[in-house]
Write a structure and sequence with these properties.
Elements lengths: L1 H24 L3
Length: about 30
């Protein structure tokens, strides 16, 4: 169960980083 929480948290951090990168690219 603990590994599942860490895995979900890592996916959340990755998606947030990806969203931030995309917003930086399309920031005119």
């Amino acid at each position: 169960m603990f590994y599942f929480v860490v895995f979900k948290g890592r996916i959340y951090m990755y998606l947030k980083h990806l969203y931030f990168s995309i917003s930086q690219i399309f920031n005119f």
